Amino acid sequence: MRKKTGRYGEQLSKKYLIDQGYFILDSNYRTKLGEVDLIVQRNDIVVFVEVKTRNTMTFGLPREAVHYKKQTTLIRLAEQYIQYKKIKNMGFRFDVIEVQWNNNKGQYEVNHIENAF
């Protein structure tokens, strides 16, 4: 169930980002270090996006799951991606997108946190 919820949150996040004028460069970019959910670009900025989806607040806000260790991993993955793709003359940042899903009402809310860390 968690994977299904997470995939749905990533789909909603992609749609949201495209609607905001971002271009999707990569989804679920994975190396031996870990995974970046979305890598997007708008103008001259490449954004590494961690998507956290929750359907309950039992474990706190979705953004709270992007702790120091996860941030460190994302930074290392971004460095690898930039070198591998030979990206130059671009800015970079790390965003978090929270998707809060209410199963009872069939509604969701997307909260895009730019420059999250």
UniProtKB/TrEMBL annotation:
Gene3D superfamilies named among the record's database cross-references: 3.40.1350.10
Superkingdom of the organism of origin: Bacteria
Cited InterPro entries: Restrct_endonuc-II-like, tRNA_endonuc-like_dom_sf, UPF0102_YraN-like
Signal peptide: none
UniProt GO MF annotations: nucleic acid binding
CDD domains hit by this protein: PoNe_Nuclease
Family to which the UniProt record says this protein belongs: Belongs to the UPF0102 family.
HAMAP family reported in the protein's UniProt record: UPF0102 (MF_00048)
Protein name: UPF0102 protein CACET_c20470
Organism the protein comes from: Clostridium aceticum
